[in-house]
Amino acid sequence: TLPRHVRLVEVGPRDGLQNEKRPLGLADKVRLVDDLSAAGLEYIEAGSFVSPKWVPQMADSAEVFAGIRRKPGVVYAALTPNLKGFEAALEAGVEEVAVFAAASESFSQKNIDCSIAESLARFVPVLDAARAHGVRVRGYVSCVLGCPYEGEVAPRQVADVARELFAMGCHEISLGDTIGTGTAGKARALFEVVARYIPRERLAGHFHDTYGQALANVYASLLEGIAVFDAAVAGLGGCPYARGASGNLASEDLLYLLNGLGIHTGIDLDRLIAAGERICAVLGRDNGSRVARARRGA
Ligand code: HMG
Ligand code: MG
Questions:
Q1: Measured from the CB, is residue 142 less than 6 Å from ligand 1?
Q2: What are the residue boundaries of the Pyruvate carboxyltransferase domain, all occurrences included (predicted)?
Q3: pLDDT tens, 162-177?
Q4: What is the 3-state secondary structure (H, E, C) of the chain?
Q5: What is the ipTM of this complex?
Q6: Which residues of the chain, if any, have pLDDT below 70?
Q7: Which of 118, 131, 262, 295 is deepest in the core (most CB within 10 A)?
Q8: Which atom of ligand 1 is nearest to the CA of 208?
Q9: Distance between Cα 41 and ligand 2 center (Å)
Q10: 48: Cβ below 6 Å to ligand 1?
Q11: Interval between CA 142 and ligand 2 midpoint (Å)
């Protein structure tokens, strides 16, 4: 049976914008986040406290957090790769943070400049500081269904990293198909393996749509009892350290699927589409949501 409720984690302002070549102004970033909360999204990853040398697009995250209109009941989160990032996030008033590890060694090196083991050791003080400040921490695992440098990744490798993140106190573990090569059978099998160690309600799916498989992967994951999915409005996004990783699953397309299944989310599709259309116009980019494009013709 399918879950009755699904939570959408909107990652467009972070995963989406971190990969845009054209720099986006602060006011447009703030407007995007406010449009998304107005559409009914209750969890928005609004920025990233990483090195500006690595990801210049996220250098103004503190200003974004200062500029948004915080809607009660909405969680505004940010990525924090280390204690320095966590402290900056705390200062900016971030309510929830996320640490990010990888299931493949090569990707870990390229993305965060350290081994998987080193990254996990680096997260421990972040989790400790977060606990002391009452801040919840989400954990990401990248390359769960394939690595741009190593190819196939075994579910066992993913489960090992996910378990460590969960054991150190991450309340939710998001499994990222960073390059979008995963297919439905593999996605379902992966969650089946990881759920042997971590309760299903603590797991999330993060599917990039590079190969057009993201919605199918979501459906397969729903059948496996997963009820939290990450998506980006207008299908913005990708990862600067994974070639070909353009495009998260579009939030509009995910919402359309969930609406069709009668699964409640509380999000207004029309307002979400409008938010996506607006940011695409500002960026001068095609809308990656099929639903948004279809509605345009209607
Ligand atoms: P490093 O070079 O090993 O770090 O990078 P370091 O500690 O040696 O510091 C080097 C410089 O960075 C120093 O500055 C630090 O102060 C500064 P300098 O002395 O040279 O002027 N620095 C920082 N500045 C601001 N905020 C910080 C910070 N930390 C150090 N937090 C580091 C290591 C992790 C910092 C770097 O590799 C980095 O920032 N990587 C971020 C990469 C990234 O953001 N990737 C995209 C997000 S992950 C993703 O998209 C995948 C996901 O969507 C899931 C999926 O799809 O799979 C989540
Ligand atoms: Mg991603």
A1: yes
A2: 6-273
A3: 999 999 999 999 999 9
A4: CCCCECEEEECHHHHHHHHCCCCCCHHHHHHHHHHHHHCCCCEEEEEECCCCCCCHHHCCHHHHHHHCCCCCCCEEEEECCCHHHHHHHHHCCCCEEEEEEECCHHHHHHHHCCCHHHHHHHHHHHHHHHHHCCCEEEEEEECCCCECCCECCCHHHHHHHHHHHHHCCCCEEEEEECCCCCCHHHHHHHHHHHCCCCCHHHEEEEEECCCCCHHHHHHHHHHCCCCEEEEEHHHCCCCCCCCCCCCECEHHHHHHHHHHCCCECCCCHHHHHHHHHHHHHHHCCCCCCHHHHHHHHC
A5: 0.98
A6: 238-246, 298
A7: 295
A8: 56
A9: 18
A10: yes
A11: 8
Which residue bears the tokens 């116009």? 281
Is residue 280 part of the annotated active site? The answer reads no
pLDDT tens readout for residues 38-77: 999 999 999 999 999 999 999 999 999 999 999 999 999 9
Distance CA 179, CA 40 (A): 28
The two most distant CA atoms of the chain are separated, in Å, by 52
CA distance 80 to 13: 15
| Ligand found nearest the CA of 173 | 1
The answer to whether 67 and 39 have CB atoms below 8 angstroms apart is no
Distance CA 3, CA 191 (A): 15
**57 within ligand 1 shell (Cβ under 6 A):** no
